[in-house]
Amino acid sequence: MKVKLWGTRGSIPAPGPETIRYGGNTSCVGVTLSDGSLLALDAGTGIRCLGLSQPDEPARLHILLTHLHLDHIQGLVFFAPAFRPQTEIVIWGPASPEASLRDRIARYISAPLSPVEVRELPCDVSFRHTPESEWEIGSARIRSASVSHRGPTLGYRIDDGDSSLAYIPDHEPALGADLDELEEDWISGFELARDASLLIHDGQYTDAEYPCHIGWGHSATSHALSFARRTGAERTVLFHHDPMHSDEQLDALGADARERWVELGGDPEAVELAAERTEYELPARAASATATA
Amino acid sequence: MDLGSCGANPGNSPLLGRRGTKVSFVTQRPLELILARNLMSALSTPAFLVDEGGLLVFYNEAAGLLLGKRFEELGTVGPQEWGSLFGPFDPEGQPIPYDELPLVTAVRAGRPAHAELTVRSTDGSNHDVEVSAFPILTPHGSQGAIAVFWPSLANGNGTGPA
Q1: Would you say residue B15 has pLDDT above 60?
Q2: Order of strands across the sheet with A271-273?
Q3: Digit-coded pLDDT (tens) for B18-49
Q4: Domains of chain B (ranges plus CATH)?
Q5: Which of 120-159 (B) contact A at CB < 8 A?
Q6: Do B10 and A177 touch (CB under 8 A)?
Q7: By residue range, what is the domain housing residue A108?
Q8: CA–centroid distance for A134 within its chain
Q9: A288 touches B3 (CB < 8 A)
Q10: Interface predicted TM-score of the whole assembly (ipTM), two decimals
Q11: Of A136, A278, A291, B16, which residue has the fewest beta carbons closer than 10 angstroms?
């Protein structure tokens, strides 16, 4: 399984010279399974470049949306494969009692917000509510669960061979809870991340910023680390960077995270901040894996 | 950088004993129950939480004060054990059948329910309360119910929230 970060920013794109190293595109992670199947986790503005990286030939791909906030769907209408008739796209997302997934996404892909409508997309696109049970895509088993955020929001776990990826980009598990004391089954998202090879998790705020953002649906550094420690994730990537955080600020946040992780008894190399275009290779057989920027 | 270095996570230390265990998806509480518990933990009103099967899975500190026993001391209990420990009783002092408890109505019928009843604390004292219970309904069906206890105003001797 190969994992590539195409968009690491939260809330709103933040391009500019001050965000060039960690990136300014919003949430999107590309996952190439061991059988070659392609998944896109979320469709923030990062999915535009993922689409441009794909060859112009018949393909079937899956987009797994955690939720429908704009920073997770904004790139959909700029996703090149969606404009190729020979492409089949399956979009998975959370159910809502209010309207179907298609209708909710169509609120964005429609006038006046979009120059095209869903029905006008040349590709063969379908929309599916994520099931409660595990299901399979290609060589992977996929599992989703509702997690603590504003509105219907999912996290995903992808198991392919012996490797597992947990993706929980928008998550506030510490809302009203002490993650260090709480029983495992009462921690939002716990089973998704349990012993994951790679955990990509919300780390939007510093601990100093969090008190002004309680209930906004995101984690402080210490919460993300507590969650990672409790779940036993082997490697943690802090994701969904605040648009106000420059590269320099993120460098400091990353150093602080590693220091805290060491204080908890962990390996400083096992915690890092998400940087756009970073790739991770998770082997089908448990052994070693590499990250390259 | 190497991604597969075992023991990188402090949560995997031998003391915590998770390293080497095969991933198996044990029952994760539904998010709605998790959020309900988090909210109840912050309330000073006695509140109780049951799962979709009627199992008492949490009550808050205020409820613990009312009952004389913290949830952490009692743990998850089934309805029969709950009844034998704390009652409840009707205004005439008769045990209320399990099927008639507001929480059970909320879980089984998916309807809110209200009642006046008496609960017995572990020190033997009785507390007259009014109970309001309502179901937790989600797109995936019923996930349980919440009951909140209020001091009974009917006979003026109720015990208020802690």
Answers
A1: no
A2: A135-137, A140-146, A154-160, A163-168, A198-202, A236-239, A271-273
A3: 333 334 445 788 999 999 999 998 899 999 99
A4: 29-151 (3.30.450.20)
A5: 139-140
A6: no
A7: 2-292
A8: 18
A9: yes
A10: 0.75
A11: A136
